[in-house]
Amino acid sequence: MGTTQPDGLVERMQSGDLDAFEEFFNTFKRPVYTTALAITRDPFLAEEILQDCFVKAYRVRDRLRTDVSPLPWLQRVTTNLCYSRIARRRAIMEPLSTLITNVVADLTSRPEQVVESREIIEVLQRGIDALPPKQQTAVILYYLHGYSLAEAAEIADCNVGTMKSRLHYALKALRALLPAERRAAAPGARLVTDELP
Amino acid sequence: MSCHKISRLLLERFRFGELDAECDAYLAHVERCRECQDEIAVDRALAGQLRRALRDRVDGFEPSPAVWRAVRLQAADPEPPGPWWASAVVAVSRGMRVMVPAAAIMLAAVLAWTGPEADGGQLDSSFASRLQWHEQLTETAAIENPLNRLLEITPSPSRSVPLPNGEMPYPEPVKSVKLPTGIPTTGGVIR
Questions:
Q1: What is the ipTM of this complex?
Q2: Which residues of B touch A164 (CB under 8 A)?
Q3: What is the chain B residue with the closest CA to A13?
Q4: Which of B164, B40, B51 shows the shortest CA–CA distance to A38?
Q5: Would you call A171 an interface residue with chain B, using a CB distance cutoff of 8 Å?
Q6: Sequence spans of domains, chain B
């Protein structure tokens, strides 16, 4: 898994060594904070979640396994804290037609260039927010952290097939937000702006 | 295999880096098919943009040093005890998880055992008779008693005496009930 623990760190923490706990915090704070921030998009809330996560880790330190990295456990706690803290906010998917009209004006016939614009990033941001929590977690673990399928599945407490399925549906949903771009990508297709008033 | 199916199959392989020798035939098709090329290219471009969108969310942010101080302070404190009733609620809820399905199974078993199939579809006649008697009396009294003093209504004792063979006869509809004083009726009887 991405961040390995220094030898004996958890054991030292279990013996009540606060310096070891600080080292533990510094070792794993970044991936935990990144996950919280990617889900909540709120730096202050992400800090609160980071804090709660490590306080919880310290309180249950005796139950932490010493033979494996604690990062999957920390990430799982983080995602659970995120979704329990934030209201299930669903981005109000306002009509994208205006946005898409602006987007397709830049398009060329090659699909690699289709999705390379700032506006599409914004569409994707809203699309990510609108994903169900499990798919959102899958996308963040796989595409942001770069965990392997097996690692992401371990964090999400599911099997690899389920993780693949979540990613598949997440990408499908995100791709569905870009219908106009895709039409424009087809050879010989006209820009959608021509069809709009 | 259709073009669409080929591109869909390959999409997943491309996404998760699982291309192997089995894919060679499909790849040969993709090399010739512009539509499949576009399909796969858009998917890969989308994945790239997705990574970029996610990085945009987190780049430039770092947790402040105050977080560690807060974590250390909280960790040093003993965990605050929950409210006194919390453990009881947890115990009850754990018990309910077991008891509710067990009770449902028992109820289903009882219903199956005492259901219409078990006794030929007939309720116990005396029980049914008592039920009907009670329903009729209640209904009649509710209609006829404007002050709704149902608690003070006493049924005629003769109505509840069983027949010599032990059965409760089906009673005739109650035509009158005696009411205590205070009700403006003739002779204390409402008809």
A1: 0.73
A2: 12, 16
A3: B75
A4: B51
A5: yes
A6: 3-56, 125-190
